[in-house]
Amino acid sequence: WNITNLKNKKDIYVVVIGESARKDFMNCYGFPMNNTPFASSTPHIKFENYISVASSTLSCLTRTLCFSDSLTHYNKYKNIISLAYQAGIHTVWLSNQGSLGKNDTPVSTIGRLAEKSIFLNEGEFNTESYPDSLLLSPFRETIQEAQTPVLIVLHLMGSHPRLSDRTNHHYDAFYKTKELSYYVQSIKNTDYILEQIHRKLEESNKSFSLVYFSDHGLSIIKEKLNKEYTIKHSDQYKECYNVPLIIWGDDIVQNQTIEAYRYSNDFLYLFSELIGAELEEKQHPIDFISPDEFPNAQKLLNFDYEQIEFNQLKSNEVF
Questions:
Q1: Which end of the chain, N or C, is more open, meaning fewer C-beta atoms within 10 Å of its C-beta?
Q2: Whether pLDDT at 312 is above 60
Q3: Which of 8, 17, 11 is nearest to 246 (CA)?
């Protein structure tokens, strides 16, 4: 990384990587059921048009967590961990995703670069099923033990199918079908994780920044034969790419909504702003946290790695 200026801003930086969560299924983004009691009631900066550049975990996160000057190429050496390290920030990676396998290893390799890394699942993502809440214990230990400044990344299973596994076959409220009810509940469970993280950060009496985003969304299609909804990965709909991005901090005291479009392959520009690092790699003056449009080619990748445009996709509204 070419850091031209550095002025560290916080003691603790937390990045929570969600999984398969559609923005429009979150109450804090307008969903009618209150499945985000924490996010809906705490001051934050919310991005209304944060667009994942791909609708699958591997394609998205390699371009989100690594420097990507084009959708067809990313620099695996210039990643969130190496940037934090070069900025003098200690690093911890806590994951409930898989650590081995063609869809897991490229991301878990980034995590293993951290000074401390814990993977609940040592196989592929579907080898074992653990609740994301198991990450809270090592997170609390890290807050108590880690030297500051420190970056803590938590990679959740979130709302990844099979949804009943994410919720222990339970939901608090029924929404249209059992499968959709599990989906709504999985987002509520993630909101609980965020609440617990935020509470521990406040209790630490240290300055902090907490960022949550989802890697991609899912398609929700009503089958004509049985009139039930099926939930699956897709590259055909806007909602598969339009995902949540929310920031909390010890100095954020009122809600702010940013309507300007942001794309996930610019995420490290956001992270560099949060840690106070000016990068030579950023060739324009616009801040990520601002109402101004960010310069980006605004292209996405479909499953065939072909470049497509967000506005040309169909909508997949459910309500």
A1: C
A2: yes
A3: 17
